[in-house]
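Section 3.1 - Work completed
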Amino acid sequence: MSRRCRKRHWAAVWVVLLAAGVRAPARTISVGPGSSHDFATIQAALNDASDGDRIIVADGTYTGNGNRDIDFLGKAVVVQSENGPEQCIIDCNGSQQEPHRGFLFQNAEDANSVLRGVTIRNGYAIPYGGAIYCRGSGPTIAECKLCENRAYKIGGAMYNELAGPTVTDCRFLSNSAESGGAVASASGEPMLSNCTFIANSAQTGGGAIYSSLTGATLLNCTFVNNSAEHGGAVFEHRGSSRLTDCKFVGNGAHSGAGILNYESEPVLAGCSFEWNLAVGGGGGLYNSYSEPTLVGCGFKGNRAAWGGGIENYAGAARLSSCTFAGNRADWGGAMRDYASSVILTNCLLSGNIARTAGGIYNRDGTELVVTNCTFADNSADQGSALAFDSHKQKYPGSAEATNAIFRNGGNELWNNDDSQIVIRYSDVQGGWPGEGNFDSDPCFADAGYWDANSTALDANDDFWISGDYHLKSRGGRWNQSNRTWMNDEVSSPCIDAGCIISPVGFEPFPNGGIVNLGAYGGTAEAAKSFFGPRTCQKAVAGDINGDCRVDLADFTIMAAHWASRR
């Protein structure tokens, strides 16, 4: 059969197969210089590609038409480098006079449209998305490096509108825009995981990320040395983002050096904020008219004029199992609350410093509820732990603290605006009126301290060495250094000293049936009760407090919790 006849034969076969709904097998298409590759430009390869095809881009630097402003055309195609982003560079050579970006996803692309392992640099867009523009689509962007891209308005490296791209294992370096120096999203549900944002900047909001009306998900992302006027790393507007295990280090802003939330309801779990600096409020986090939820987050070494760790303004914040260590501010070393409703549960605040309120500064009608928290080694001229002051405007607030510890700062609470402060079942240095309160050494395992950093005369470079604020116990204390249980020679008076109707939660046995005070009370790391040498060799049914006897004490505990639910 002649070559011409063979071509006609296979063409007829494909017509039959296509008519039967059978797809052609996926192809691998190569891009690169020279005749050994199928196409010389990426766009030409995409124009020829069909769904399911894979385009391999050879090592080299790609510039000019066909290698910038590349449109995926709605195709479910993988475009990937041959040997990673360091070897495959898309240089857009964009400028304000001649704007160009890297890629466009604007034809309903989904997760099967994949861009993997390339560097995109020197993009410039007017107005949005210096390197990648994504509208009404949800592509996958993986293992890419986006650096030194710019946008005239928002999204220096990437802009998402009504979009839900999945961005994973990408690096965003030194991108810039008016807002959203690296990434900007308007509506949609983008997901970013294992991404790094370094030295991105914005003139107004979101040095790394600007997000508006989105339900973005950020997982295990790191933000270092980003800057903006508001939200040095992240600015969220009317959103409900979910951030898990993200790190914010050394970011800077006027307000919200780590994150600024405006009219938003974000959820942060396991996130850390360290050494961020805000000239105004919120060294780590600034919440304005927002209702954030924080679980297991840490704030260390952050600085601001007010709210070294967090500033809450006219909103409602919920924090559980969070730590604030060595933060500084003029007002509220750890936190400042302004006309807000704030609830803290199982939180630890230690070594925070301010002129007023080393721990939490409350003003203008703030309602504060503290349960099972530890305030230790904080310092301030007024209110080492808590301060209430409305600057003579007389808008008193309220505070309710239960099962808490306030120690080692002196002048722990300061009330300068006649706020209503109710403290119960707490260990307060210097004493405080209220049911169940007392003033005793809580016997912390190992208190933290400030290190002078070899410059005793310069306090500005001092740093806080975090301690271990678990309670000592002869019955058993959790050692956070080696993650084991150990026994001490003394037992803290804060063990089994909480409100009798407070749930003991996950406290390990023997727990006395009454919750411990402080940040670890009611948790699996609570210090165990000690009733002397054990008199029984096995657990006794009905022995609630673990003293190896079933008696009136057990019945009293049971009655206090009758019909209650966790």
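Second construct:
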Amino acid sequence: MKLSRLQTLGIALSLVAGIALAIGLGWPGRVKAPPPSEAATPTPPGAADNALPPAHFVGRAACAGCHAEQDRLWQGSHHDLAMQEANTKTVLGDFNNAEFSKDGVVTRFFRRDGRFMVRTDGPDGALAEFEILYTFGVTPLQQYLVPLPGGRLQALSIAWDCRPQAAGGQRWFHLYPDEKIDHRDELHWTKLSQNWNFMCAECHSTDLQKNYDQATHGYRTTWSEINVSCEACHGPGSRHIAFAEKQQGYERIDPQTLGLALRLDERQGVSWPIREASGNAVRSRPRTTTQEIETCARCHSRRGQWFADYQPGQPLMNSHLPALLRAGMYHADGQIDGEVYEYGSLLQSRMFQAGVTCSDCHEPHSLKLRAEGNGVCLQCHGADKYASEQHHFHSANSPGAQCVECHMPANNYMVVDPRRDHSFRIPRPDLTVRIGTPNACNRCHADRPARWAAAELKRRLGHDPKGYQDYAATLHAARTGAADAEDRLSALLQEKSQPAIARATAAAELRTRLTPASFPSLVQALYDAEPLVRAAALESLDPVPPQQRWEAAHSLLRDPVRVVRAMAAEALAGVPAEQIPAGEREEFLTAGEEYLAAQRFNADEPGAVVNLGNFHAALGQAAEAELAYREALAINPDWMPAYVNLGDLFRPTGRDAEGANLIQQGLARQPQAAALHHSLGLARVRQKDLPAALASLKKALDLAPEDTRFRYVYAVALHSAGKTREAQTVVKTGLKRTPGDPGLRELAAQLGQ
């Protein structure tokens, strides 16, 4: 899943009224940054082999000769069957003129001349016939890929339920059953969100090269193997074979690497003896790397791919940026909510902290668990203590006696696909009572209130439960705009005993509530040992004046992790060139080129093209920025941020009338887009048409009442128009919703509230 950060370049509040943003006041003139992280740039695996020809992919057959058992286990696995050519052996769905009806469209699945076909609504909404070229996945559902012009493969939103009929399967179903979707909707099967090249391909094939051509808006996507084969995890195998077969030049290969880009040997010689006193196992030696976990995380995570040249064994963030614990993806306590896969949950767990790797529980070739049922957990947790009613409070062999039901509850995704939470947390019905997060107890005891579950658990334990994760209240405070959110986030950011992904989320949440009081903790986060924390802290520098931003973050232009360097360049792009010391301009340019390369790689996605425009605009390159914004609209004429940012770009050059016209074009396509109404209101302010401006700004707030920025600007505009009492009411209402918002609090004081 791709992620893009869309930013609006400015809202020019000083043009609305003479009330300054409180967030921009009182910043310290200079900030002494902590020393850079001790982490050194990792030595690429096989660096001693540089004299050899570049390693290349050789294919599974070349591996199977020596690794027959691993190959046997892999055959038939989800990796083996991740993607296949459509034929009578691979297609599981009913193509015997089966019909499926939704939203007034009758889709028919049939065969013609040995080909698998579908008749459904196409890009223009008209019914048309399309050929199925590939199957995608195998169980519990199978999707089908259809070619469209420009080298695109699109995943049909109607999938086949592979489960047995007795379990509700053997049927066609829609992946968005509760939403009305037509050809204009972003979720339609012909749109970018269902595009295989952009959304799915990297994780379903080996040595995937997207090869997007920005000039033609087309793809020339290639792979070395259609499925997830040996080299998808182990890296290109040519040098390993040269070493094993003692081919010419093999003596130049470091025997410690065996010619492999990455040796997945973190578990070699490791045991987990169970301590009698605790009933828990302790790793026989500490885990010193996360290479195995990050190899899996490349695909088993919610993340954005920034660079095409992923290198096995290098830090994941050299090429990818994992998602944080954002609302909609995770609940406030970190439990899974949206489709986030496993990595973000695992990072929150005590298991991760203890040194557990993915293959401690999963056989990495078959992907099956290493033991049945509770057996996989009892590898490390003594049966006498944990496989007892005294621990789980349920009858033996009942569902409640299964470890995963309490500690790894499952959510359904894609309608029929249950996936378990990998944060291994204890049930917390007390948090359900306090902040509304779900809990494992009430998943089964749905007929009982959470208060009952909380009281019952306290009675049985003799105390309130308390798990390893301790940030639910803080993230809840941030999401609800509590008055103490800023202080809580600053405290969590500095709590090194908590998972890095939670601290990184705290850094990101500070972005909209950052003040001089919390700024020092953000500066410390910029130099945290964890790159995910550093990256999140960089994102939160937006409110900081350019010179202070440079003082705080310029050394991250040399960060050992590439995505962090690129993000540092983005954060510092607005610093005037004359304020950048001559000796550091080259570092900024180099990191800036990395940032631009990342956005160009993702230029098939309009958000990345808008990011390109934002970067050029921050550098004062208006012509280049305008080209980028218009390119984003060429890719997707409904892409709202492109309208907003292009309209804002017109402001300094006196093109407000043109900007207002552009925004109205966007509103004709997206009449409910709050940001467009807001942008139009600002344009009307600059044109000195205050009545029209107030109408547009009010419309924006009506459509998005939770947006404190819209509320702030509307209140300032009301005050500027002499409607101070109305402005006070708008601010008062906002502070009831988000009492901790620093801008609204400062504005309330300035308005005499």
